Amino acid sequence: MKRFFLVIFTVVAVFFITACSNKNQGGNDSGKQVLNVFNWGEYIGFDPVTINGVTYDNVIDAFEKIYNVKVNYETFDSNEAMYTKLIAGDARYDVIIPSDYMIERLIKQDRLNKIDFSLIPNYSLISQDIVNKLDEEYPDIEMNDYVVPYFYGTVGIVYDKTKVTKTVDSWSILWDEDYKKKIFMYDSQRDSLMVALKLLGYSMNTHDLDELQQAKEKLIEQKPLVYAYVGDSVDQQMIDGEAYLAVVYSGDAAYIMYNNPNMSFAIPKEGTNFWIDSMVIPKTSQNVELAHKFINFMISPEIARANTEYVMYTTPVEQVFNEVIEEDWANNYAYNPTIIDVFGGNIQTEVFRDPGDFIKEYDKIWSEVLSPERNYIVPIVIGGVVIIGLVAYLVLKKRKNRVY
Amino acid sequence: MNRTIKALLYPYVVWIAMMIVVPFFLIFFYSITQSRPDSPAIFRFTLQHYREFFKTENINILSKSVILAVETTILCLVLGYPAAWIISKTNVNIQNMILLLFILPMWINMLLRTYAWQVILSRTGLLYTDTAVVIGMVYNFIPFMVLPIYTAITKIDKSLIEAANDLGASSKEAFLKVVFPLSMPGVITGIVMVFLPAVSAFAIPRLLGGGQYVLIGNLIEKQFYLLNNWNFGSAVSVILMILILISMRFMRKSGEISGRGGAILW
Question: Of A51, A187, B89, B112, which has the highest C-beta tally within 10 A?
Fold first, then answer.
């Protein structure tokens, strides 16, 4: 028995020692400092980048080599998934890049460090329009004290102009019977509810249960027309021309249009979502100084250019934006928000606000949209199977008792 | 000697305790408590998550999952039984070859195979329908049906079939009265091993079903991954586990009765 406990003790001890050493992410890896970055998937430059005459494999590689550090790079596919991981695990991230409304929640819950702008000399390169926008839209929290903008954009409809002959200027085209099973929607509750709420003329931050109810009915009405509710895969599927219409973020639209010239982009007249994704430093960060260096590095002109050219989302670094617009994508309607006059107010845009506890109502509405239709055949079939099973059971039992 | 063998068992016992028993109790604990979302340490006991489950939408989700799993299981059985029967009839060398062909695709990651189906089905216009989900699940789970049935059939004593023939049974009668009842343990195992992963699948329905509706597996995944509602997610998991236990118990009973003398692989 003694030996038994010894074995158990050894195994448990080994388990805990390994567990603890994994937890120590901020620690040394052959003497190098470690930076833990948590970003959206496909949201950083992966092409080779040249800085001061030296070529690096990609943006992360450049940062690692120039600063002689190690970067642990992890990705998420939605703000909500990021939030769950951030608060549930004990993973310590140094830099996260979520969207505005999620940053609002993190600030309200006191989970973020303020940025020390003396360590971010490149901050002056950020477009003043974006900084002002954050101040205007989030007047109750000092958002600009906590964030350095990374990418921004809108949400609109990307469509195949060889297949869609009607004018695409309203969300209502997504309810058009002619395009049945040729429509992609996002599998994301806030984006999909935004489409329905805007179509109905309501705010996408509504706290009115009746308006949400109407949005739900609208989305259920649309369900038979939708080909699929998808995530990031929509890029490739639209490039392949699998559907005619898709709700996408502007950066994805720019990428799709770049790779498939048949595609076009439209911002519906009912208005849409304007969003800004920013870099923030959580309170749990183990290396705040290095985090600042990373943020400063990400908005330096060469790197910002490498990032925006790779992922094709709009950069807030003004000088890079102007260069890119001039050289490459002057007419890429999705990349260039100045064409559609987002800041001039010709397009009605709204930013997402964190609904606080009211998010439960949004969760509920969305899960009702995605719940399968009521189906009476199902209980009947299940009942039938159970009865047949029981009969078979009884018959077999009887046979067992029979004497041959 | 005996002691050494026993000592070899300890790591496994520890493994089981840490990876199965403890997590199970954690899930059960989560399912009957409600904690504050920001501080899991503060909690109270409640049955609200179980009550919440019995809402129409969740029952619809459950019945949709069960019906897809039943369809998958029936198709696997209809396709798998003859396959197993034919394999068991062939020459031993060819048998091993065919079995290898059945197992070979399982060496490739399930997600990769499902992505391949996405491409195939999109060409036929079936992608993002119920049919696509069922095809994907049948493709993925059919080895779990064929292998146990094959094992059960090969274990049947040939002299029993010869005896049946000698006593005047036609080959059809011999199959129905001797081979089929004796292969029942394999069938039961096959049904259990296909039904269980099919009812809780979430990756295949999402990739091939296009997220048109939530199934029970997606519902659980979402609670943990997106909504940060571990308590409700745990309650749904416990309910699913109870349903599976009940159906397994039931199947095992009928397996024991019909499959006298046959070995139960499960």
Answer: A187
